[in-house]
Amino acid sequence: MSNSKIIIQNGIIVTLNSNMEIIENGTIVIEGNKIIAVGTNDCLGEQFDKSDYKVIDAKGHIVMPGLVDLHFHSAIGRGYGDNLPLYEYLMQLWYPMIRALTPEDAYWAALCSYSEAIRSGTTCVNDMWRQMESCGQAAIDIGMRAVLSNDVAIPEERLDTLEDNLLLYNNMHGKAEGRIEVYIGIEWLPLASKDLLKEVSKMANELKTGIHIHLNESLSEVEICKEKFGRRPTELAYDCGILGKNTVAAHCVWLSDKEIALMAATGTSISHNPSSNAKLGNGIARVPEMLAKNINVGFGHDAAECNNSRDMFEVIKWASLIHKANRVDVSLMPAEDVLRMATQNSAKALKHNTGSIEVGKLADIILIDTKNEHYVPLVLGEDTNIYAHLVYSSCGADVVTSIINGEVVMENRILTKIDQYQVMEKANTAFNRILSKIR
Boundaries of each Amidohydrolase-related domain copy (predicted)? Predict the structure, then answer.
């Protein structure tokens, strides 16, 4: 267990607790990987011998829970093959690239992916890709909290198998003081069979772990499933035992009323990925209807190939604005709700004790520098505009310090456990090596 002892003092603590409490001139005390005290400087200032702690002065900084990226693909081909529809992109570029992926390529690509995520405020990723043991090692090395799953498909697709995912579970689940977890992944239903889906459900139940799956991302996926299985994607997933409280369903853009009801009835969590869905021309998910049915909805960036950014603050802004514009209703997706979705809801989907700053929670915390124009004017108190600033004005580059599991993994914009410049160089080399194989 981490033996770190940290005091964060003088900050503006955006707790995102049940009362949405904001503490001015606040102090957070961390021991090991847990928050043990939260309050004002006056209340906590003399209770702890600071000589025993690493002291972080957060004056002029917002201190808040780290963001949870609920649908994440480590990736390496950003900006390559833009402007292709989803199906064509997958067949022409994505699948050829990930079939060519070596363990070394995956390690550097994942390190680069996690580096960008941490540097923009993400403290946990729900990552589905290939060569996942390499991704797990990257997460261990950089300090990321990661839930890993394989790109499982039927054998003729030459992606991952259930046996690959079981091996990953046996080798990686619970590593790094529990920071690393393993779910069972399903690439998407056009590359699955009913038997495979039933086997995934059985394995997840036997291992008492979760499932990560793409569902109803595009209209073409819906039509392929209707033709292949005679069912819409989420209907088929329900028939095969895939939906449930331990399942994260990504995208869910084209859910029917019946499918929304199935999600609600089974307690399935949904990852809303608005900027990826927009860039790929897949549409806008019916999030207001999902929330009306009390479905737990969090956010993901998807992959740098279909988003070109891993900045979750950008995703948060999209998630608020796109529904206001689409429904011509400014009341939808208010800033406070959107922040909770990016933290509490996404953490709840993964059964993590994170997502708010409270005693007993895991110490996944970020510090945001307000000493720039993004935060002028900064109003605290009853009429605070701090939530609006965080959703509509912030960007990942405003994050200066990140703590994951009680460990400082970025300080003053510098990653503490890896050489980020070496990682970028190695990731570039890996991409060119992959590209030479698929041309």
Answer: 62-409
Closest CA to 45 of 9, 4, 13: 9
The tokens describing 289, both together, are 């209807």
Q: Which residues contact 410 (CB under 8 A, 6 or more apart)?
A: 118, 119, 399, 400, 401, 402, 416
Q: Which CATH number fits domain 5-65+360-415: 2.30.40.10, 3.20.20.10, 1.10.443.10, 1.10.3210.10?
A: 2.30.40.10
Q: How does pLDDT run across 180-222, given as a tens digit for each residue?
A: 999 999 999 999 999 999 999 999 999 999 999 999 999 999 9
Whether residue 41 contacts residue 57, with contact meaning beta carbons closer than 8 Å, is answered with no
Residue 234 CA, distance from chain mean position:
22
Q: What count of other Cβ atoms lies within 10 Å of the Cβ of residue 212?
A: 28
Radius of gyration of the chain (CA): 21
Task: Report domain extents, the chain.
Answer: 5-65+360-415, 67-349
Multiple choice CATH, 67-349, 3.20.20.30, 3.40.50.2000, 3.20.20.140, 3.40.109.10:
3.20.20.140
Q: What is the H or E stretch that residue 364 is in?
A: none
Contact between residue 269 and residue 249 where contact means Cβ atoms under 8 Å apart: yes
State which residues of the chain have pLDDT below 70.
1-2, 45
Following DSSP, what letter does each residue of 8-71 receive, concatenated?
EEEEEEE--STT--EEEEEEEEEETTEEEEEEEHHHHTTTS-GGGSEEEE-TTEEEEEPEEEEE
Residue type, 47: Q
Go through the chain and tell me how many residues it has. Answer: 439
CA distance 205 to 299: 25
* pLDDT for res 174: 98
